[in-house]
Design brief:
Keywords: ATP-binding, Isomerase, Kinase, Lyase, Metal-binding, Multifunctional enzyme, NAD, NADP, Nucleotide-binding, Potassium, Transferase
GO molecular function: ADP-dependent NAD(P)H-hydrate dehydratase activity; ATP binding; kinase activity; metal ion binding; NAD(P)HX epimerase activity
Strand order of the largest sheet: 13-12-11-14-15-16-17-18-19
Number of strands: 19
Bound molecules: ligand NPW, adenosine-5'-diphosphate, potassium ion
Family: In the C-terminal section; belongs to the NnrD/CARKD family. Belongs to the NnrD/CARKD family.
CATH superfamily of the largest domain: Ribokinase
Pfam family, one: Carb_kinase
Radius of gyration: 25 Å
Organism: Modestobacter italicus (strain DSM 44449 / CECT 9708 / BC 501)
Strand content: 15-25%
CATH class of the largest domain: Alpha Beta
Number of helices: 17
Structural class: alpha/beta
């Protein structure tokens, strides 16, 4: 797992680490690591033009010391100081000693690399006007955009951008990954995140949220053993689609079958379509109770929101089985929250932003807090979809998904996610982790399918076996 941390948590760890170190050591580690990443990105230093955007805090200090390292290696380094009388004095002296100089924003027009040291974890509110003007000039220029610790303008804690932010292609972050680099608008502004170890590890508290790695997911993908049969692999029940629109039922059932093949039962009005597409599924057009025993239900995609759908949903939610509540079922729960309020078995709600708003009010800029708010309000697990899907449990535990591709923004991919999630809910991990595993697998399937060009939802189902085989082989 990759821990995600808030600015306050990182500052606390910094204080503890500093207690045993000479002043300035952590900044030297940060700046040396930053310069090494820049050298790696540039391929060489000699003759390369580097421009530093320098605010008056330690973030600017990091940029100045890294600039000094690059200048010693032969780079032409120019520091643009936002507040010349308040720039980090030792950092500026080091840069000048190394042959660097100070200059104006016009240097950005010829930069090979721009280091954004305007503001890091000490930022508050929207980026100020003078900083915004520099960011615009950097974007207009040809340089590779690299943020120091956090792209200026991004909230390190939440990923919110109040106003504008430095649109980094790479972010070199120190000590720990901040939550705001991987979620919401911050994810888009951060580009590729590089973590530089500055020795905070032993001093960091439990993380604010977590990201699963391929290896974390692989432990939940054991192949069947000699003693397994179709029932022991988990029985998923799917209620999705309608006679007129069977697609959601076909996608959801196919995803459940492909994700963790054991047994999938389908109950609903898309029975004919599902039977034709998936002869492996046990299909009934009757009510959920007629489907036979299942270990987890997926209910909602394309099922409609009429009284018949409401009554089917109520029947499923009245069981003591884990349930994935998706799409139309979310609309029904928004109208009647009591449907899930009394459940003790795991319930995972999987809204996109509009569905979330109907249930809990607008998502807002802090997506992790929003998911936590929803989970606490209904005592459920909430999987909030997005380019970085967030999972929050009712106890506050949270995951931010690290996989995926914007090619997933196409109809029906959510139906596939619901089916995959149903499959993982039948065994193994607890609800929140199952949801995080499903989002991870779904994102990897999207990446794999997108290698062949634009994907449609059915492609995700087709590549699921190969996705799982690849993940099973993951060792880190
Ligand atoms: N923690 C660690 O382990 C380590 C931390 N390290 C580094 O220290 C950094 C934190 O440094 P920090 O505390 O000095 O704050 P920082 O991010 O430079 O911000 C303060 C500056 O921003 C300005 N400013 C504020 N808001 C603004 C806005 N909206 N728009 C524009 N400007 C704004 C504010 O201006 P002022 O309010 O003072 O006028 C002041 O100039 C951290 O991110 C990392 O890089 C590493 O060196 C080593 C280990
Ligand atoms: N821009 C994007 N980048 C990455 N993933 C996305 C993006 N847009 C949507 N997704 C993912 O695609 C899926 C869409 O689900 P949903 O909105 O329910 O669509 P549908 O109802 O058509 O199935 C979710 O898993 C979501 O996280
Ligand atoms: K920065």
């Amino acid at each position: 797992m990759t821990g995600l941390f808030t600015a306050a948590q990182v500052r606390g760890a910094e204080r503890a680490a500093m207690a045993g170190l000479r002043p300035g050591v952590l900044m030297q580690r940060a700046a040396t690591g930053l310069a090494a990443v820049c050298l790696g990105l540039l391929g060489r230093a000699h003759g390369v033009r580097v421009v530093l955007l320098v605010g008056s805090g330690d973030n600017g200090g990091d940029a100045l010391f890294a600039g000094a390292v690059l200048a010693v290696r032969g780079a032409q380094v120019t520091a643009v100081l936002l507040a010349p009388d308040r720039a980090h004095a030792d950092g500026l002296a080091a840069l000048l000693r190394a042959g660097g100089r100070t200059g104006g924003a016009e240097s950005l027009a010829r930069a090979d690399l721009v280091l954004d040291g305007i503001v890091g974890i000490g930022g508050t509110g929207g980026l100020r006007d003078d900083a915004v003007a520099l960011v615009h000039a950097a974007v207009a220029g040809p340089g590779l955009l690299v943020a120091v610790d956090v792209p200026s303008g991004v909230s390190a804690d939440t990923g919110e951008v109040a106003g504008e932010a430095f649109p980094a292609q790479h972010t070199v972050t120190f000590g720990a990954v901040k939550t705001g680099l991987v979620v919401g608008a911050g994810r888009g502004a951060a580009g590729t995140v590089h973590l530089v170890d500055i020795g905070l590890g032993p001093h960091l508290p439990a993380p604010d949220a977590e990201q699963l790695t391929d290896a974390d997911v692989a432990v939940h993908l054991d192949p069947p053993g000699a003693g397994d049969d179709k029932y022991s692999r988990g029985v998923v029940g799917v209620i999705a689609g309608s006679a007129t629109y069977p697609g959601a039922g076909v996608l959801c059932t196919g995803a459940a079958l492909r994700a963790r093949p054991g047994l999938v039962r389908y109950a609903g009005t898309a029975a004919e379509g599902v039977k034709a597409a998936w002869p492996e599924a046990l299909v009934t057009s009757g009510r959920p109770g007629a489907a036979g025993r299942v270990q987890a239900w997926v209910v909602g995609p394309g099922m409609g929101t009429d009284e018949a759908a409401r009554s089917v949903l109520a029947e499923v939610l009245a069981t003591d089985l884990p349930v994935v509540v998706d799409a139309d079922a979310l609309t029904l729960v928004a109208a009647q929250p009591g449907l899930v309020g009394d459940r003790t078995a795991p319930t995972v709600l999987t809204p996109h932003d509009r569905e979330f708003a109907r249930l809990f009010g607008e998502v807002g800029g802090d997506r992790v807090a929003a998911a936590r708010r929803g989970a606490a309000a209904l005592g459920c697990t909430v999987l909030l979809k997005g380019d970085a899907t967030v999972v929050a449990d009712r106890d506050g535990a949270a995951f931010v998904n690290a996989t995926g591709t914007s090619w997933l923004a196409t109809a029906g991919t959510g139906d596939v996610l619901a089916g995959v999630l149903g499959a993982f809910l039948t065994g193994g991990p607890a609800a929140a982790e199952a949801a995080a595993v499903a989002a991870h697998v779904h994102g990897r399937a999207g990446q794999l399918a997108a290698e062949q060009g634009p994907l449609i939802a059915g492609d995700l189902v087709r590549v699921l076996p190969r996705t799982l085989a690849r993940l099973r082989g993951a060792d880190g």
